[in-house]
Specification:
Strand content of chain B: over 45%
Number of helices of chain B: 0
Largest interface: A-B, 22 and 23 residues
Shape of chain B: globular
Shape of chain A: globular
Oligomer: heterodimer
Distance between the termini of chain A: 41 Å
Number of helices of chain A: 0
Largest sheet of chain B: 7 strands, mixed
Order of helices and strands of chain B: EEEEEEEEEEE
Order of helices and strands of chain A: EEEEEEEEEEEE
Strand content of chain A: over 45%
Distance between the termini of chain B: 36 Å
Number of strands of chain B: 11
Radius of gyration of chain B: 13 Å
Helix content of chain A: under 10%
Largest sheet of chain A: 6 strands, mixed
Chain lengths: 114, 115
């Protein structure tokens, strides 16, 4: 069975500072990993994904994520946070062999203060 | 990225009535669509997975006779909440993907309020 953990319900950073939103996963085999962002009363927007290749994945709006197989992590990062980055972030995992349903984490609320 | 639309974005209905929510993939053909339910400040709860032309697969605990899902074409899936009750009030989100290895793209969601 596959699972995702986002250990922090809330992350607070000051504008201009780097941000990290943590995600760890558990799958049997190699994973597909995704990050999505959700603004209030909206659906989820795709940010980035890891399929294979480079462990550092670059995505939309200046976000990036690093796949770490030994630590089974896929943390989302941004070098300089913006107030407009404040939103709910979801990590998701899908098994390659199954490639069926994705499992989503519980979400992390990011608040960037001016 | 790919575009998925949902209609309506917001609906208020009386208890006992049925409500239909449409999900369309606008610029790609979605072999698989997913329906989720989201409670305030919580994660997504997968309700069902539907493949074009076949019956939907419902998650454990989701009543298939209450939440009717139809995926009649590669660009359209519908969720009908039958005999809605106040406890069905929620944010419903659909998602679509082209193939098993592809990214899921999400619709903007539908806020259902049952009075």
């Amino acid at each position: 069975a596959q699972s995702v953990a986002q250990p922090e319900d809330q992350v607070n950073v000051a504008e201009g500072n780097p941000l990290t939103v943590k995600c760890t996963y558990s799958v049997s085999g190699n994973p597909y990993l995704f990050w999505y962002v959700q603004y209030p009363n909206r659906g989820l927007q795709f940010l980035l994904k890891y399929i294979t290749g480079d462990n550092l994945v670059k995505g939309s709006y200046g976000f990036e994520a690093e796949f770490n197989k030994s630590q089974t992590s896929f943390h989302l990062k941004k070098p300089s946070a913006l107030v407009s980055d404040s939103a709910l972030y979801f990590c998701a995992v899908r098994e390659r062999t199954n490639a069926g349903k994705s499992t989503f984490g519980d979400g992390t609320t990011l608040t960037v203060k001016p | 990225g790919a575009v998925v639309s949902q209609h309506p974005s917001r609906v208020i209905c009386k208890s006992g009535t049925s409500v239909k929510i449409e999900c369309r993939s606008l610029d790609f053909q979605a072999t698989t669509m997913f329906w989720y339910r989201q409670f305030p400040k919580q994660s997504l709860m997968l309700m069902a997975t539907s493949n074009e032309g076949s019956k939907a697969t419902y998650e454990q605990g989701v009543e298939k006779d209450k939440f009717l899902i139809n995926h009649a074409s590669l660009t359209l899936s519908t969720l009908t909440v039958t005999s809605a009750h106040p406890e069905d009030s929620s944010f419903y989100i659909c998602s679509a993907r082209l193939g098993r290895l592809d990214t899921q793209y999400f619709g903007p969601g539908t806020r259902l309020t049952v009075l």
